[in-house]
Amino acid sequence: MSLTTSLMAPEDIGSAPSIGVLLRFIILKYYAHYYSVCSIGNDFLSDVQVGRILLSTDALHSGVAFQLAIDAGCQAFVVDEPGIGKFLDRYIPVHDTASQRSMDKSVILLLTDENRRDMLEMIAQHETFREILNVLIVVYESGNERPISLYSTETTFVGVLEAYSMSLRPIEVDWNDWESVDFFPDKSSDLQGYVIRMAMCNYLPFTGYERVEPWSGNAYDPNTGTRSIWLDGTELQLIVSFCQKRNCSLLVYTEDEDEWGTVYPNGTGNGLLGSVAERRSDLAVAAIYHWLQPYNFSEYTASISRSGVTVLVPKPHVLPFWRTPFLSFSGPLWAAVLGTFVMGIGATFYVGHLRHRLLVAIDGDRAASEKLTLSEAVLMMVGFFVAQSGPIRTDLLSCVVLFASLLLAGFMVSNCYSAGLAGIMTVPQYDRSIDTVAEFAASGMIWYGPTPYCLEEIFNATEPYLKKIVSSYRVASPPETKLHAQAAKTGFIIEQTQNGNFAPNDFLDRRTSTFYQKLLDDVYFQNCAALSTKTNPLRASLNDYILRVQQSGILYHWGTMTAIRYLPTEVFRNIANARQHLHDGDAAPLEIGHFLGAFFILGYGLLFAGLVFFFELCGTKMAKRLKERLR
User: What is the pLDDT of residues 97-141, one digit of tens each?
Assistant: First the structure.
């Protein structure tokens, strides 16, 4: 940074106004839209009717009063010569700790003619002006307080890896017509190669990059200093088009290892969020939500897009064929059938016992052959329930009533079961599907995501099901996420973009994508924005450009083209069609597998009967030996 001798030449001040008149005119014309103006040092604005905060030069030493003034709404500054050095040194640290985040700030610096050279050299070398575009330097005579010359700052591009370079440009003034001078020319329309340090990570379709041949990319690589990075994705294309329109340069720092990272209470951190908080970058982009923790040390731009957060859950599987015989009835209905069966056995056995006692009193010889055992009662009820005949006694009216009611109940149960079984065997049956957020919470399933900030919006939720979802969330790295995806037993957080795609999707491939489906509703939705430093001078221009892009609809086009170029279309198609099963609309033909349940019942019955027969043999032999010993 150097100061040319042409800036030092005195000017013909002619009929120049006093410094007070000049400042009054500038304040009323350019500072009227600001909430408040800070006057530091010698006060030349005592008679100006604007919101004004007066600070002494000594108040800049600690920075406390300076910060209080900024939090009180101070958005523009008029600084006299004694306080310029401290003001520039304190400007960034104080704004970083302040709560107010006003944009498009302006600064007027007042220099005396005696110290012009030293002050201009100090100003030209100070890096604080990287954060301030609207700067007016007024050199005045200390004796009669009349302006001599005016200067403005101008960005000088000397390379992306070089320190910020700024030069002082004199403002030509005809003091006979000084009121027509543009004291704050628009510098944001042509930034002269201004370097924006941007942090990002691969997170398609929002952000993505690839390294290309030198000078064939659209962003600079900090390792080589050449334009060898190609940026793509909806958010990055917006930033690239902004820089193409405004003539600025992008220096990209990739954070693929820490990704979003975190910000600690002392202002340090890692990843995208920590990069902005520590001022290693000016801007961070990668579908960043309006999170509270990084907000204490940075600021958000206007919302770029809407993002709905939902969950990928395992698809319901086809139920195994061995369960076919048990699917005709639901659990409660099976309990009712079992209860009816047990009660029928009890009633049959009890009525048979009463009948036997009556027969003993009437005909003892016949009673011995007419006794109803428990086994006969069980088999009789089984026969009634499967529409088979059984030994029915009709010599007593009570037996007729009992067996008539049991036959009717068995008829209804067997016919209902047959009808249900016909539907089960022709329509494929699946596990219970998880369709809503409440059902996902009730399942108790673990789900994974890339950062804990993904759930910041519902950390303090009071709904029980949201609390359960938060407690089951786990943070996983990309390799861990891929391993869990192959197991198909857990859920995964995804963000649905405005144009229908979702991220992250790099943990899915053609095979694993067939295992999952999306919930039908969102856990919550948020707005994505870029994260910026608090004093970023381009934030107002970038916000205006974001809103213009939003209303034009081109963001949808960028998202669609990004998906076509980079995203796995087969994965998205599998997820989109996850709820369309193979046999939808058609009856499944009967297969041998449909009868596995019956075969299993037969097999387990034979096995159980064999075991019981074995124990009966053993019991009979043991009883025979015991009798022989007792004899």
Answer: 999 999 989 999 999 999 999 999 999 889 899 999 999 999 998
How far from 603 is each of 250, 282, 386, 421, 565, CA to CA, in Å? 73, 72, 19, 20, 57
Which tokens sit at 118? 């030293």
What DSSP letter does each residue of 127-145 carry, written as one string?
GGGGG--EEEEEEE-TTT-
Contacting residues for 151 by C-beta, under 8 A, at least 6 apart:
7, 120, 136, 137, 139, 168, 169, 170, 171
pLDDT for 547 equals 94
Token pair, residue 29, equals 């014309």
Residue 75 CA, chain-centre distance (Å), reads: 34
**Does residue 1 carry a pLDDT above 50?**
no
The two most distant CA atoms of the chain are separated, in Å, by 147
What's the 3-state SS for 92-108? HHHHHHCCCCCCCCEEE
**Dist. CA 459–CA 581, nearest whole Å:** 36
Q: State pLDDT tens for residues 200-254.
A: 999 988 999 999 999 999 999 999 999 999 999 999 999 999 999 999 999 999 9
CA-CA distance, 506 to 476, in Å (whole number)? 13
Instruction: Please tell me the distance from the alpha carbon of residue 251 to that of residue 256, in angstroms, as a whole number.
Output: 16
Query: How far apart are the C-alpha atoms of 341 and 460, rounded to whole Å?
Result: 51
Identify the three-state secondary structure at position 18.
coil
Select from 249, 257, 258, 206 the least CA-distant residue to 229. 249
Alpha-carbon dihedral 393, 397, 400, 404, rounded to 10 degrees: -160
Distance separating alpha carbons of residues 91 and 599, to the nearest angstrom = 83
Q: Is the pLDDT of residue 13 over 60?
A: no
Q: Which amino acid is at 62?
A: S
Q: Is 123:84 a contact under the CB 8 Å cutoff?
A: yes
Q: Per-residue pLDDT averaged across 155-180, rounded?
A: 83
Q: How far apart are CA 340 and CA 486, in angstroms?
A: 46
3-state secondary structure of 79: strand
Of 186-200, 310-324, 347-361, 532-546, which range is least confident? 347-361
Instruction: Compute, in degrees rounded to 10, the torsion defined by CA atoms 321, 323, 326, 327.
Output: -70
Between strands 283-288 and 491-496, the pairing is unpaired
The 10s digit of each residue's pLDDT in 338-375 is 888 888 888 888 877 777 777 766 665 555 556 777 88
Contact yes or no for 287/235 (Cβ under 8 A): yes
Whether the pLDDT of residue 8 is over 50: the answer is no
User: What are the start-end ranges of the E strands in 189-265?
Assistant: 194-200, 208-211, 229-232, 248-254, 262-263
CA–CA separation, 203 and 544 (whole Å): 25
DSSP 37-55: EEEESS---TT--S-EEEE
